[in-house]
């Protein structure tokens, strides 16, 4: 009998490069990039960590190789004005601490924040979707593992604008377009340029949706675009889901669907997802 291997995936979201976190590890007004880099340092230790002894799959065993990551968006924070209230205190873990705020700040354009994310997760100059930069997780051949992407609402808002939130001059589609383009090997779409959106209505284009799927052993993974909430997109998205499911084989293949939002959030990823590799 062929021995099955258990594949492991990691899921993260809401990187929010460009935001300023009020407090992090004792520091005040900490840049989002600093927080993400601290997270990556912990992620790199996962193979040597063990799953909790909770009765679940592989309970108490070493995590070992992580096969791929899924980042479900908000890579860039909306390029909007954020407030850091000055000269007040807040309660942190039961202790009241001073909070030396600095007033208002404007989150940078997504061209800036995407570059930060890429440098940390993929590496400068990496035009694909394999781990690099500060992220050192590798597969059995010593290669960077795949990092699959979906846009979040902030990535979409930066791309098409948001009334009352993002000034016209701050609209920047870089993070959305980079996510779209790097997933084209899986979606079958053609790459686009950063000026693909000329007005918010362009988002309803069925050819600009980050819908794609891939197989991992006995699991067929579907990634559904953010906000498929217009009639044309709902119809197109449901049709795409039905088509890609019917094409996946074998018929017994398990199905996992990730949707950042919309279409009733077909499913949610478990806190700890393990896939049977057959």
Architecture overview:
- α1 (32-43) packs parallel to α2 (110-121) and α3 (153-160) packs across α4 (174-182).
- This protein has a 4-stranded mixed β-sheet with strand order 9-4-1-13. The chain has a 3-stranded mixed β-sheet with strand order 10-11-12.
- It has 278 residues and is an alpha/beta fold.
- It has one domain (5-267): Purple Acid Phosphatase, chain A, domain 2, CATH 3.60.21.
- It has helices spanning 32-43, 110-121, 153-160, 174-182, 184-187, 231-247; strands at 5-12, 20-24, 27-31, 68-71, 81-84, 88-92, 95-99, 103-106, 147-149, 212-216, 219-224, 254-259, 274-277.
- The termini are close together.
Write out key terms for the chains shown.
278 residues, alpha/beta, three-stranded mixed beta sheet, 13 strands
Strands side by side in the biggest sheet = 9-4-1-13
Question: CATH topology, what is it called?
Answer: Purple Acid Phosphatase, chain A, domain 2
**Low-pLDDT stretches:** 259-278
Fraction of helical residues: 10-25%
Q: Overall 3D geometry?
A: globular
Through-space gap between termini: 11 Å
| String of helices and strands | EEEHEEEEEHEHHHEEHEE
The number of E-state strands comes to 13
Quaternary state of this entry equals single chain
Determine the number of helices (DSSP H or I, runs of at least 4 residues): 6
Q: Which structural class matches the secondary elements?
A: alpha/beta
| Count of individual domains | 1
Arithmetic mean pLDDT: 81
CATH architecture: 4-Layer Sandwich
Major sheet size, sense and barrel closure? 4 strands, mixed
CATH class: Alpha Beta
The percentage of residues in β strands lies in 15-25%
Radius of gyration: 20 Å
